[in-house]
């Protein structure tokens, strides 16, 4: 095993992002591999939250327009920082609401069903909340049977040609994940977008498992809308305010869910009962923004500007390359199935491994300081994050997994998921 340790040290020695590790709070003896569920807290995120709290302390209500980060414009300011990560204009990106609420807002705004074209396309592998939101839209319009789901042949991956072949003139709008939350597969977003537009279908993507892990060019690809959370790879903190992109060609449409923060800022405090919508993405806001749930993003996003998303992607692939190679070598013969695609263009920022004792393995890993997460029925997701994980972290995580498999330590734990998995 010495060769793997030496290779890890060599890779860490030339890592151009290695210094960012010192920016994060990492516990002693902890190998945190769950950044695809909740990213670690950074010192910059902590500082920016405290700074905004200081604004409240020092300015009171005037914090809405005073200080370095006026609250009145915070959603737009953070949206501008995220725009570079998704390849869009600042006027097309916003920090607002939660991911699920943003699905409701965008789909209800852009969905224009007719008697012939009313169906919504999703997929069998999507995150449940996305499906709940889409189904509720259909229910409200009286099209409860209008959901079309792309199926998976193996229960892990989606085939682009199958997606395209299911597009027809009955589909009004579609929402797919950019990266599948279980398997980590990256979908061919540009190809899917082009095909959907050829059929007159509005297309959106859920970027929750890709934002902050890989580059996007949403505007160039012609994507109509996208939603994402900010607490995974972006490390914005638990429940941090979500992100939203809507292509400028749709900004003329008045939003479905209207609220006072979607009003034109120049007239918002006229308090008129006629909605004077903002001319850009800002109209997608509804109520008063959650300032303290946005504030950490100022600090967290600053690191991405310095690191460069291209460098983040390169290291992320290197980390998962190293992990896959180690598992295939030192854990050969243990019936561990690596589900995540190996091709770079199809692999996101985490890997999924399968085993019949996966829940017990997950619990055993946590007891040894390795923090992954479990996904039913029998899988463990492992996400080494470029900004704070090292190659030596990966080495130790895999060696601890080997110890667990060698000694059957998973049998000491219940092979069932906890209430929160």
Key features of this structure:
421 residues; globular; seven-stranded mixed sheet; Aspartate Aminotransferase, domain 2; 12 helices; Aspartate Aminotransferase, domain 1; 2 domains; alpha/beta; pyridoxal phosphate binding; PyrdxlP-dep_Trfase; four-stranded antiparallel sheet
Structure explained in plain terms:
There is one protein chain. The chain is an alpha/beta fold. It has two domains: 2-32 and 308-412, Alpha-Beta Complex (Aspartate Aminotransferase, domain 1), CATH 3.90.1150.10; 46-306, Aspartate Aminotransferase, domain 2. The protein is built from twelve helices and 13 strands. It has helices spanning 2-13, 43-59, 74-86, 99-110, 128-141, 160-165, 189-198, 218-221, 291-307, 309-330, 358-367, 391-406, and strands at 31-32, 93-95, 119-123, 147-150, 171-177, 202-206, 225-228, 243-246, 337-338, 351-354, 370-371, 373-375, 379-382. Strands 2-8-7-6-5-3-4 form a seven-stranded mixed beta sheet, sandwiched between helices.
Instruction: Report the major sheet.
Output: 7 strands, mixed
Q: Uncertain segments of ≥5 residues (pLDDT<50)?
A: none
CATH homologous superfamily of the largest domain?
Type I PLP-dependent aspartate aminotransferase-like (Major domain)
Helix content: 25-40%
Name of the level-1 CATH class of the largest domain: Alpha Beta
Order of helices and strands: HEHHEHEHEHEHEHEEHHEEHEEEH
CATH architecture term of the largest domain:
3-Layer(aba) Sandwich
Shape: globular
Total of domains: 2
Straight-line distance between termini:
31 Å
**What is the average of the pLDDT values?**
97
Number of helices: 12
Rg from alpha-carbon coordinates: 22 Å
Side-by-side strand order of the widest sheet? 2-8-7-6-5-3-4
